[in-house]
Amino acid sequence: MSGKLKITGIGGSLEQNSSTLAILKSAMAEISAIGAETVIIDIKEVSFPLCSFSKGIKPDISAVDDMLNIISSSDGFVFASPEYHGTVSAAFKNVIDYFEFLSDRTPPYLTGKPVGLIAAAGAENAGFGTLETMINIVHSLRGIVAPSSLAIGSANKLVHADGSINEDPLKRKLKRLAEEVYFLSSKLKS
Ligand SMILES: Cc1cc2nc3c(=O)[nH]c(=O)nc-3n(C[C@H](O)[C@H](O)[C@H](O)COP(=O)(O)O)c2cc1C
Question: Please, what are the domains in the chain?
Answer without folding.
Answer: 6-168 (3.40.50.360)
